[in-house]
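It is worth pausing here to work through a concrete case rather than discussing structure prediction in the abstract. The textbook approach is simple: state the sequence, then state the predicted structure, then interpret. We follow exactly that order.
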Amino acid sequence: MRALIDDEVVLRLADDNYIPAAVWARNKHITRDTVRKHRRRGLPFLKWANTIWIGERQGEKYLASLVRRHRKASLPSEPFYTTRDPAPQALPPRRRGRSGNSAASSEPTRCAR
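Step two, the predicted structure:
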């Protein structure tokens, strides 16, 4: 992403580079309205010189917090079938409807009483 940013539009403060929100949105392939929505939801920004600036690191951290990842700790440590476990039981065959087409017959089916 650094190749898409000109040095002229970067505001360098203490520990982060700040980019105008319009440039940051273009680099992230989102619209400025989406940036505005996320600023209301907690995206850190800086208002300076009548421009909204987004920190590179802070913006990346915010976007990473939105992504839900699978935890590797929740995966089982052993495979489901091990050599100690017996072989899985086969499921019984699936029941199917009658072999004849009952909908095509002209007689209604009767229940035995």
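Step three, interpretation. The first helix runs from residue 21 to 28. The radius of gyration is 31 Å.
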